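Most newcomers find our protein records easier to grasp once they have seen one. To make this concrete, we reproduce a full record directly below:

===
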Amino acid sequence: MSFPAITHPEQDNDKLKEKGVSIVAFLDTVRPRKDKTFTVRLRIIYNRFPKYYTTKINISTKEWLKLVESKRLGEDLKEKRTIIYKLIRKAYTIIYELPVFTFESFDKKFLRKTGDATNIYFAFDEYIKECKSEDRLGTASSYEYARNAIKEFSRKEKLKYEVITPKFLKDFEKWWERQDKSLTSVGIYLRCVRHLYNRAIKAGDVGIENYPFGNQKDGKYAIPQPQNLKLALPLSDIKKIFEYKPKENSPEHFHRDMWIFSYLCNGINVKDLCLLKYKDITREQIQFRRAKTINTNKSAKPIDAIITEEVKQIVSIWGTKPADPNKYVFPFLENGLTAIQIQGKVKQATKQINKYIKRVAKNIGIDANISTYTARHSFATVLKRSGAPVSFISESLGHTDIKTTQSYLASFENDAKREMTKKLTDWD
């Protein structure tokens, strides 16, 4: 006799099919137990190869049919069905999140010890490893800092999700502020905690009933919003940077020009600037994808930066020669570097640009803590003040928060972009 199988009512079979995977829970009648019950197992098939995972639930054929077909169940069968659904959900959530499915990577996550699954430090360590394996080293560093801060505060080697209450989070915030550290850091670290908590809920490792994040009016913890620092320069100060005459071909000249290039090219950050290759440049524009989101948002649009005369001149002066399509535009990187080596060189480039742009600012009387990040903020703020649509600025910056920006993203033809970009050097 063939017995029906169970799937989770929320699983997206089309999404699983895209990965070449299927999941069901079934009654393994091939291996009867001495008490005449059978074990319920998960069957995962990948590219026609099946693999089986026990649910540790043993049940009779009569009970199985009732569990599958009846809506009215006793407490024992209800509990067993809940466990089965929880395991299926955990399995498909892991599969959805894997960039590429392999049984090795799946087993590593699915077969971990239950005790580990309730410990957020274990979740931190797993996610950090995942980020490093995908060369998302900046994100890995953020989660390492967050984990270390939470550990220092809690003074516990293991931290169960149930301990992370609104009071725990508020106490962490107060503890952090007592050390004269910013609320911005609190927000960054606790968004990491929230992300891991949400992943644990999706995987079925913890329930949603004790979820600590939300509206303060509901007794939940609200993560502090980033502090609204005034990082943008007024156009008059930007004009001074453009008109400043450093010693020709000096380090100050080079790094000042890198800051200007960032400002003119949509506030491009240093990593993306370092990664630019000549194949990214056409006659009219530079097109690139943000390294920050390239692994996490496959649908993100490439960013188009219009090439102005100033941008042309900077590439002409400082671009590597000859201009081969597969060569990096600027002499920060070379082909064949590892992700860790790239990270090190990007950090050094950022440090040097910041060092020299601060020196330039001091020389021309700009009383501001100027940095590479100032170029990005200034790009957005100058355009906003000039009347550019928010949708244009959002698209130009490559925002990836779909909920807040995609609804008003719009495409712009090159002529419209060129008119907007002209405002970046419209001193008069």
The two ends are 85 Å apart (CA to CA). The longest helix spans residues 339-363.
